[in-house]
Specification:
The complex is a heterodimer. By secondary structure, chain A is mainly α. In chain A, 74% of the residues lie in helices and 0% in strands. Chain A has helices at residues 19-40, 43-59, 61-64, 71-87, 89-106, 113-131, 134-144, 149-156, 163-180. Chain B is elongated. Chain B has helices spanning 5-12, 18-30, 32-52, 66-80, 84-90, 98-112, 146-160, 175-182, 214-223, 295-305, 310-318, 378-386; strands at 123-128, 131-137, 161-166, 170-172, 198-203, 205-211, 239-244, 247-252, 277-283, 286-290, 325-331, 335-341, 344-350, 357-365, 368-376. The longest helix of chain B has 21 residues, at 32-52. In chain B, 36% of the residues lie in helices and 25% in strands. By secondary structure, chain B is of the alpha+beta class. Classes of the chains: A mainly alpha, B alpha+beta. The interface between A and B is large, with 75 and 63 residues.
Chain lengths: 181, 389
């Protein structure tokens, strides 16, 4: 059999350049990464998770047809992945402590006080979030990331009319746990 | 009727309809209890938001530009879609081995392209890596038919490329043993800087010869969207020889342990040894090129293949000594800088310059090429590299 190179029809264009996907990516990337950063506290991890979210969107047939605004779906998946990351942070903390101990051993310069304070405060806030009911924690983070009530309702699969009630309840819960921490 | 707590809460977020808003304002006029309740909700909401803002990314922590992220996504999805070359180059499992692959890639490209003459034994020029340089490439600029071209190239290689494996894969107990097996002075970092047990291994090298079939190469380039890159006719039918020496790899850390990354499956392929420090060293790869070869023109073609425009490639190729420089394509979402390392200039590549992240440091010295990868900061990388003995 003779194989004729260069006479085979090229495969169709990769779908990674689909215009509607590009538009969605442009529109949602910054906010999605910021949301995931708040949950994970690690830029690389936030970006990796955001890439994973868009990858899953990319494979979703309904979005490929450009049938509906995928915002709700994006934030639903991102919130789930980010929240799981937040919950499993104990494991990561161990590594961070090891790394910090190592850094303390090898570098003579201590971290500036402001950075230490910021890290402790973040630690405290994330700790409170993990102790809240998952939906309440997710609601607070989504609100803080600038989502509208309609978007939050879509992302968390709740009725738009109950967002205010649930949000007020979540804030009460957060305040109580934060104070008692 | 009094508004619900949810409606009072929504009031402050501007999430009420016009009707609801008017009714609420009218109700506040007659009901101080609701007004006070609303105010206390607002105060609490403000406090919670203020506390949560501690989690906001700072300037230094904010995300890469959307454009860089979009490029990154091309690679990410290509890896997932298992496009062979991207998969090899960027899958996390292979990241520590970028160096080897970069060398192989350069060789592959260089072998495919040099304008050589039919006089096989009249080789005068010799490419030998004496320094390294980095060139950014934007995965978005790569041709969409890349995958297709990759298959054609593999086919071309299978038919026109002959190689002979030199040495065999084996482990070494000490750097002395590795040195005598490979024939280069193997150096290792100060063990106090690299945690974990050391595993020294040797990968075989190869002698490669490639017969240039210009028509097929041009046809592949054309199908891949590089139809405007042309090579001189006299290349056709010539043979190029290259040598990739044996490679010594020193791995520090537990290969079976990967750095736990939340939200990621620790058992997934790609988590291999992601917290290891890996040092690769080898004698400089060489490519024999015949008399009168315009290396700058080949360099320019190589740069075009990374997605550079004709004008950019033209001016960049003038700045490089192509007979001695290994030019490594670095995707544009990674940071790259020239650093002073081990007494020479090297290239430091990081996913992000300001964070603890995976780094790769590549340099060439005394006829050897070194590549160090690990997880840490710029300082970590340089300290380890400068401690080699």
């Amino acid at each position: 059999m003779t194989i004729t190179i260069g006479r085979v029809k090229p495969k169709p264009l990769s779908s990674t350049t689909r215009p509607d996907f590009d538009a969605v990516f442009q529109q949602h990337w910054p906010r999605l990464v910021a949301l995931l950063f708040r949950l994970t506290g690690d830029r690389d991890e936030a970006e990796d998770l955001a890439l994973e979210v868009f990858w899953r969107l990319h494979r979703k047939p309904s979005v490929q047809e450009g049938s509906q605004d995928p915002g709700g779906w994006l934030y639903r998946v991102a919130t789930r992945l980010g929240y799981n990351a937040l919950r499993s942070r104990k494991r990561r903390d161990r590594y961070e402590q090891e790394a910090a101990a190592q850094a303390a051993g090898t570098s003579a310069q201590p971290a500036p006080e402001a950075q230490v304070e910021q890290r402790q405060e973040r630690e405290r806030v994330r700790n409170v979030l993990t102790r809240m009911r998952p939906r309440s924690a997710q609601l607070l983070i989504l609100r803080h990331s600038g989502l509208s009530y309609a978007e939050m309702a879509d992302a968390l699969s709740i009725a738009p009319g109950s967002v205010g009630t649930l949000l007020a309840r979540a804030e009460k819960e957060f305040e109580r746990l934060y104070r008692s921490h | 009727m009094h508004p619900t707590e949810g409606q009072l809460r929504a009031f402050f977020d501007g999430e009420l309809s016009e009707d609801e808003l008017a009714r609420m304002q009218a109700h506040f006029e007659i009901c101080p209890t609701c007004r006070q309740h609303a105010e206390s909700l607002q105060v609490r909401a403000g406090q919670v938001q203020a506390v949560l803002s501690a989690l906001d990314p700072t300037q230094a922590e904010s995300a890469a530009s959307v454009r860089d992220a979009r490029s990154h996504f091309v690679v990410y999805s290509s890896t997932k879609e298992k496009i062979p070359m991207f998969q090899k180059m960027f899958a996390p499992r292979f990241r520590p081995l970028w160096a080897i692959l970069a060398v192989t890639l350069v060789l592959t490209v260089a072998i495919s392209l040099p304008p050589v003459r039919a006089i096989a034994n009249d080789f005068l020029g010799l490419f030998r890596v004496q320094q390294v340089s980095a060139v950014p490439f934007d995965p978005l600029n790569l041709p969409q038919n890349f995958n297709f071209a990759q298959e054609s190239i593999t086919q071309l290689m299978a038919e026109n490329l002959k190689y002979e494996i030199v040495g065999k894969a084996q482990n070494a107990a000490t750097s002395e043993e590795a040195s005598s097996l490979v024939g280069i002075p193997v150096r290792l970092p100060d063990s106090s800087l690299v945690p974990g047990a050391l595993k020294l291994s040797i990968q075989p090298g190869a002698k490669i010869s490639f017969k240039v079939d210009l028509e097929r190469i041009q046809s592949i380039l054309s199908d891949a969207g590089f139809g405007d890159i042309k090579f001189p006719k006299e290349l056709d039918g010539t043979t190029v020889n290259a040598e990739l020496p044996m490679i010594v790899t020193a791995i520090y850390g537990d290969e079976t342990q990967s750095r736990a990354i939340a939200g990621r499956d620790p058992d997934a392929e790609g988590s291999w040894c992601s917290n290891c420090t890996v040092l690769v060293q080898l004698a400089s790869p060489t490519i024999e090129t015949p008399e009168g070869v315009d290396l700058t023109a080949i360099g320019k073609a190589y740069l075009r293949l990374t997605g550079m425009s004709d004008a950019e490639a033209d001016s960049f190729s003038q700045t490089v000594d192509w007979s001695t420089t290994l030019v490594i394509p670095v995707p544009n979402f990674a940071s790259r800088e020239t650093v002073s390392v081990d007494g020479v200039n090297g290239i430091l590549i990081q996913q992000s310059p300001s964070y603890d992240t995976q780094y790769m440091l590549i340099w060439a010295k005394d006829g050897l090429v070194y590549a160090l990868t690990g997880y840490g900061t710029r300082t970590t990388a340089l300290e380890i590299a400068n401690s080699l003995k």
